[in-house]
Amino acid sequence: MDILQKALAREHLSAQELSKLYEYDIFTLADAAQQIRTGLYGKKVFFNNNRHINPSNICADVCKFCAFSASRKNPNPYSMGIDEVLSLAHKAYENGAKELHIVSSHNPNYTYEWYFELFRAIKKALPQVHLKALTAAEVDYLDRISNKGYKRVLEDMLASGVDSMPGGGAEIFDEKVRRYICKGKVSSQRWLEIHQHWHSLGKMSNATMLFGHIEEREHRIDHMLRLRAAQSETDKVANKQGGFNAFIPLLYQRQNNFLKVTSFPSGQEILKTISIARILLDNIPHIKAYWATLGLNLAIVAQDFGADDMDGTIQLESIQSAAGAKSKSGLSKHELVCQIKDAGFVAIERDSLYNELAEC
């Protein structure tokens, strides 16, 4: 039995062994991934109507890959107040957003309580909108400035109206790579612990992986295996409700940051990574080809390589576009639907937890 067959049979293999999956022909991997994807969702491609809001770019941490945080490469610091965020939230809702995705920097000028006042204000004003907020890195930062412990942070999030967590801050779990690209940020183990506790509270989250920088193929596989193991632990809990909704491979954006990378992954390497994710992450329901980092065309192509989701309209995107992605202004629902249908798929508008709302 070869490596691909063993992977599909979920035999216990090391990250080093599984990294040999990259040596397969791209269409062999695509065929295996698509059989899984089609068995689950047929020709459906999911998206949602969402709005990203990033309250500040002033950050206490320094990640070499980040072009969003204020630095000498981005000398335009800003901090929003609660009223300003609320105003943007109202406008987003008026424009059709059903989800607010709120991720910020680790701003030392915001107090611990500021975040929960913000969330309570949003839920009071817009109770029907799904609030997705705070990465595990932000949770860890709030723990650091408050000494309350990450469990208390998560419980305060729950009490203030946060509905689910995004998957940011995972980057690459390999500790050596992590020390180089984001030293001082939440550790890989703590990132996983934070999400698992959130899941134990009956809530869902996403998981990301930043790839295409200094990591090796084996590091990507190791990252996926750790996520699969964490999801398996959640699956063991009786009456499980929480868990990872989706895995999102985020392609590193090369501009305006301090990570000196000169070799970037080809389109084939990117698509192989998505196919391998679908093959290995059999217990995470969805694989998202995030158009804001991949570009719209490649994200559409990725739907034939194991992905089944493209994220959403976004309305305004600040983090990836700061590093060169062509995602600043988001997409209209009409444009997103047309692109999906023109590629021969069925466009399904979903909510934040992947309940199907409408075929478009």
TrEMBL record:
Gene3D superfamilies: Aldolase class I. Pathway: Quinol/quinone metabolism; menaquinone biosynthesis. The keyword Cytoplasm does not apply. Pfam families: CofH_C (PF19288), Radical_SAM (PF04055). It catalyses: 3-[(1-carboxyvinyl)-oxy]benzoate + S-adenosyl-L-methionine + H2O = 6-amino-6-deoxyfutalosine + hydrogencarbonate + L-methionine + H(+). Radical SAM enzyme that catalyzes the addition of the adenosyl radical to the double bond of 3-[(1-carboxyvinyl)oxy]benzoate, leading to aminodeoxyfutalosine (AFL), a key intermediate in the formation of menaquinone (MK, vitamin K2) from chorismate. This is Aminodeoxyfutalosine synthase. It comes from Helicobacter marmotae. The gene is mqnE.
